[in-house]
Amino acid sequence: MTTRVRFAPSPTGLFHVGSARSALFNWLFARQQGGVFLLRIEDTDADRNREEWVDVIINSMQWLGMDIDEGPFRQSENAEHHKAAVEALYAAGVLYSCACTGDEVQARKGDNKTPGYDGHCRDLNVARSATTALRFKVPEGMTTVHDVIRGTIEFQNAVIDDFVVAKSSGAVLYNMANVVDDRADRITHVIRGEDHISNTPKQQLIWEALSKATGPDLPLPVYAHLPLLVDASRKKLSKRKDPVSVELFRDQGFLADAFVNFLSLLGWSPKGEEKVSRAELISQFTLAEVNQSPAFFDVAKLTNLNGAYVRELSLDDFIVATLPWIDPKNASWSPADFETPWPDDRFDAERYRAIAPVVQERVALLSEVPAMVDFLFLENPPLDEAAWAKAVTGDADAGAILDAAIACYGEATFDAEVLHEKTLSFTEQLGMKLRKVQAPIRVALTGKSVGPPLFESLVVVGREEVLRRLQAAREVAGSTAP
Ligand code: GLU
Asked: Beta strands 189-193 and 222-226: pairing type?
C-alpha cells in the first residue's frame, strides 16, 4: 500500500515552528517511503481563519523546500461530504441529537468538575431542530491507540465524553471533518504534534464507525505524535514570548537547508550527528526513532548550524542568498520592514563581490551582512563614537598612526598582502602592536570597530577613498592626540 501522509494546518495564526516540524516529519517520511505528501488546509473555523495565513503556510513550505504532491486542498470545499458522513452516522444510530445548552450542562454538574458532557440527552430521542447539536454516542469499553512513538495508549471510554460532531448550525466540527477527510484522502499515517493525543481516541471511534456505517472498511492510520517543543527554561514554546514564526527566521537570514536540518533534530537524531544533508535526512528518517521527551528549540544551536551552512555555500550562492539584504531590487523576496543602510543607487555589485568571500567567513546569519559592508556603499559611514574613543585611548597615538598610514597607503600597491606587510613595518617603527594600530585605521575607514579583515577592506575601498577617509579622521584625531 502506498504511504500517504498529510500536513493539515489550521490557518489561524503565524506559521509556527512546531507546525513546520510536523510538516517536515511528514514530508521526510513520504519522501523516504516513496509515498505521497498532501497539504490540507483545515479552514472550517471561519471565525479564526485568515486567508493571509494560508499564503504564509504555503510560502514558508515552499521556502523550506517541502514540495507537495497533492493539494493544497481546502477542508471547507469538502463540507457536503462532511455533512453526508454525519447523516450516515446519525442514520446508523451512532450520533444522537442534543438540546442542552452549556449553562444547563454546567448547572446539572454543580460542583462536579469532570470536564465534558454528562450524557443527558443520550437516550431521550430529542427531535432534531435548528437548536440541537449532534453528539457521538461513545460506546462502553476501552479505546486503544497504537502510537509508533509512544507505544500503546489506552483510554477508558468512560472518560471520553459524548462529544459534539455537528453544531446546531450544522457546522461539522474538527474531529469529524478531520477523519472524513483522512479517509477520503486514504491517509495511512497521521504524524502530528502531541497536543492531538487526546483527540485520537475520538477520531479512532469516528473512523471505525464510518468504516461500519458507510464503508469502505479502511484500516486505521498509523499514529505518530511528535514531542513538544520547549524553550531554554523547558517551557512549551510560547507564541507571545518566543520568536516562533518561520517567516521570522527567514527574515533573520537563516538558510532553508540549515533550518530544515535543525527542525529535523527536534525529537529525532540521525546517528548522533548534527549537520546532516537533506538527502541523508530522507534516507535515514524513521518514525520509530523519534523520541517522546520534549525537544529543546535551541536558537544558539540553530545559529551555529546556520553559520556552518553559510560557510559551505559557493561564492555565487552566498551572493544570491544575501541579495534580499544587499540588493533587494534584484532579489526574489525581501525581509519584512527592512531597508538597506545605503541608498539603492550606491550599491556596487562588483565591490560587494570583492569583499563577499571574507564576509561569508564571518557571519552566522545573512542579516548580519549589511552592517558589515555598509562602509563600501556609504559615502561617509557614520562614526561610532564609542569605537572611535576606544581606538584613540591608551598609549595609541591616533594622530601618529593615521599619519603613518596615510603616508604608507599613498604609495603602497593596493593588494591585501602588501598592505599587511607595509602596515607591519610602520607599526614596528612606531613601536606598537598591530592590533592597536589597526583600530583607528579601521574606525576611520568603516566607522566601526568590527567588520571584515582590514587589509581586504582597504583594497576594496581603493586608495583614493581610503586616503580621503583617513585624512578626515586625522583631522578629528588632531584634537585628541597627546
Ligand atoms: N488542523 C489541525 C491542527 O492544525 C491538524 C490536526 C491533525 O494533524 O490531525 O492542529
From this structure: parallel
What backbone phi and psi angles, to 5 degrees, belong to 343?
Answer: -65, 145
Report the CATH architecture of 385-476: Orthogonal Bundle (1.10)
Rounding to the nearest 10 degrees, give the CA dihedral for residues 206, 207, 209, 210: 110
What distance lies between CA 124 and its chain's CA centroid?
A: 50
Scored b (16 or more CB within 10 A) or e, 336-364 reads eeeebebeeeebeeebbebbbebbbebbb
Contact between residue 400 and residue 430 where contact means Cβ atoms under 8 Å apart: yes
**Which protein residue has the closest C-alpha to ligand 1 atom 4?**
9
Atom of ligand 1 nearest to the CA of 7: 8
d(CA 363, CA 311): 8
Pinpoint the alpha helices (H) of 165-242. 174-184, 200-213
At 190, is the secondary structure helix, strand, or coil? Answer: strand
User: 35 C-alpha vs ligand 1 centroid, how far in Å?
Assistant: 20
CATH 3.40.50.620 location in the chain = 4-226
Q: Nearest 5°: CA angle at 154, between 123 and 238? A: 100
Q: What is the third-level CATH fold of 4-226?
A: Rossmann fold (3.40.50)
Kindly give, in sequence order, each residue whose CB lies less than 8 Å from that of residue 444, ignoring residues fewer than 6 positions away: 402, 469, 470, 472, 473, 474
Report which ligand 1 atom has the smallest distance to the Cα of 178.
9
Q: Are 203 and 179 in contact (CB under 8 A)?
A: yes
Domain with CATH 1.10.10.350 in the chain: 385-476
Helices (H) and strands (E) in the chain, counts: 19, 12
Q: Name all residues whose Cβ lies below 6 A of ligand 1.
A: 8-10, 42, 178, 190, 192, 196
- Within 13 Å, how many C-alpha atoms sit on residue 14's CB side? 14
pLDDT per residue over 341-397, tens digit each? Answer: 999 999 999 999 999 999 999 999 999 999 999 999 999 999 999 998 888 776 568
- The tens digit of pLDDT for each residue in 124-174 reads 999 999 999 999 999 999 999 999 999 999 999 999 999 999 999 999 999
